[in-house]
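Hello Y.,

Per our agreement to keep a running log of every chain we model this quarter, I'm adding this entry. I've kept the format consistent with earlier entries: sequence first, then predicted structure.
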Amino acid sequence: MVIVLALSIAVLAGVSSWFLQQSASRAYERYRNAFKKEATARMGEFFLFLDPAQLWLANLALCGLAAALVYIASGPLWLAAAAGALALLAPQYSIKQLRRRRLRRFDEQLPDLLQALAGALRAGSGAQGALRHIVAQSPIPLAQEFGLMLREQRMGVPFEQALAALYLRMPTEGTGLVVSALQIAAQTGGGLAETLERIAATLRARLHLLGRVRALTAQGRMQAWVMACLPLVLGVVLAQLDPDSMRVLWQTPAGWTVMALIAGLELLGVFFIRRIVDIQV
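Predicted structure for the entry above:
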């Protein structure tokens, strides 16, 4: 009877391990394919054409290095696994932050381009010729995006389709206004210079208001980061001052439960603070 029970437990453990391995393998493949697809699309937006397979290997190397360093420095295996998981997710978060910054810089540069384009139109220049001359002297990322649009047009892509592709790459409110104005002007004509000047004035007023909002909410954003980092700093300091007492927190199931609860509450607090200070204009 004991032998049968032991064999049953062994078979159950083997089957469970096989299913767990298969699930982990499928999850790994899904995440790797999603990472490569996302990296290819996002790197293309930054005009960086890198091999997604090499980026994936670099991400895995970063994950392993972070886990090894944390394990050597602290000792708990679960903490090293958490550090490796964070390192695995960090590149996607960084890419999203860089894309958000790129969109913001594009919006900041857009009013100057519109003002220069309106001046060129009032001087008698054509819209596409003036746009080509202005884009050649514009900073990045505006020069890259409008330059790609003009190259697509020279290769035979219709002007309206090239504008629509520009809006897909840079889906901001300012880009939508500019694309709509240029499409209408290309189809019907009319006072494009005056329209562009009004759009430029509207975008400048909006950017000024966004700057004021960011300045007024800077303290709230800093409060979120201070609240998130303070327990970590305090834990490191207490571990150096009284390692025997802190060992209960690092090396016992009760301590792990407390840390998981603290991490959950910290993330919840940061989420709510950032939602409060994220004012849409």
